[in-house]
Amino acid sequence: MSDATPLQDRVAIVTGASAGIGRATALALADGGAHVVVTARRAERLQTLTEEIEAAGGRCLPVAADVAALEEVESVVARAREELGRVDILVNNAGVMRVAPITDNDVDDWTRMVDVNVKGVLHFLHAVLPTMVDQGSGHIVNVGSVAGRRPFPGASVYSATKFAVRALSWGLHLELGNAHGIRVTDIQPGYVATELLWDDPETSAAWDQAWEGRRTLQSEDIARSILFAVTSPDHVSVSEILVRPTDQPT
Questions:
Q1: Digit-coded pLDDT (tens) for 106-119
Q2: In the chain, where are the structural domains located?
Q3: What is the pLDDT of residue 1?
Q4: Which residues are within 8 A (CB) of 181 and not within 5 positions of it... i.e. 6 or more apart?
Q5: Interval 64-69 mean pLDDT
Q6: 85 pLDDT exceeds 80?
Q7: Where are the alpha helices (DSSP H) in the chain?
Q8: Euclidean distance between CA atoms 140 and 166, whole angstroms
Q9: DSSP-derived pairing of the beta strands 35-39 and 11-15
Q10: N or C: which end of the chain has fewer CB within 10 A?
């Protein structure tokens, strides 16, 4: 294994890989030598990403799935095991964010955030855990948020889901590290220029206006943080990484 390919022959699953942080992470892991399983709901984008990775000499398996659907998640992991033999890295990146006053009382939005941001993480944990325990090794990366450290107005429920991810990550670190050799990392980005708010044009425009003239994080910045964690020596557990834009005022 060379320094250029620190993840040679490792198998990594990346959720929410059709865009943003997930896409950048899949590219970074593949460039590091990993065989990458990419999953999201948008199959056509996964195919484009797969072609890009394979054109660069990497190996990629696209499997469309909704992280909120347990059977679909189990199918992703089953495909990874059948076609690639193992699962070494799981990057739980898929997430949704709805920003609105809590008084809007939109329980459908709340439920969708819980289904994707919390249950989606649990579904993939459930699906990969037996394999990693049998291997006696593995690395689970949960993409949380600075909102998992402090809520902000309009995102109380989103923040609650990321607080849950942070608590789960630390609990997994305690239960899985010493006993099973499985490392766990919680990556906590500040504001990243991604599609997270693109399905809400009004909110997205307001955020763009608030950030005018300021430098945001890019998806590749978070991918580099994830690559750092998963390529650290086996005896090193990078439990949390908080990554904020220098220009973020809060």
A1: 999 999 999 999 99
A2: 11-243
A3: 43
A4: 136, 137, 138, 234
A5: 98
A6: yes
A7: 20-31, 43-55, 70-84, 107-114, 120-135, 156-180, 201-210, 219-230
A8: 13
A9: parallel
A10: C
Q: Is the dihedral of CA 190, 191, 193, 196 positive or negative?
A: positive
Q: Can you give the length of the chain in residues?
A: 250
Enumerate the active-site residues.
158
**pLDDT tens, 19-31?**
999 999 999 999 9
Whether residue 127 contacts residue 76, with contact meaning beta carbons closer than 8 Å, is answered with yes
pTM for the full predicted model: 0.92
- Cα separation of 24 and 8, whole Å? 18
Would you say 61 and 80 are in contact if contact means Cβ atoms under 8 Å apart?
Answer: yes
Buried b (16+ CB within 10 A) or exposed e, 27-53: bbbbbbbbbbbbbbbeeebbeebbeeb
Taking CA atoms, 218 is separated from 26, 66, 155, 185, 228, in Å, by 15, 24, 21, 20, 16
3-class state of residue 52 by DSSP: helix
Question: How far, CA to CA in Å, does 111 sit from each of 39, 54, 68, 105, 123?
Answer: 22, 37, 11, 11, 16
CATH architecture entry for 11-243:
3-Layer(aba) Sandwich (3.40)
Which of 118, 123, 193, 119 minimizes the C-alpha distance to 159?
Answer: 118
β-pair partners for 246: none
Contact 228, 32 (CB under 8 A): no
Distance CA(29)–CA(185), nearest Å, equals: 15
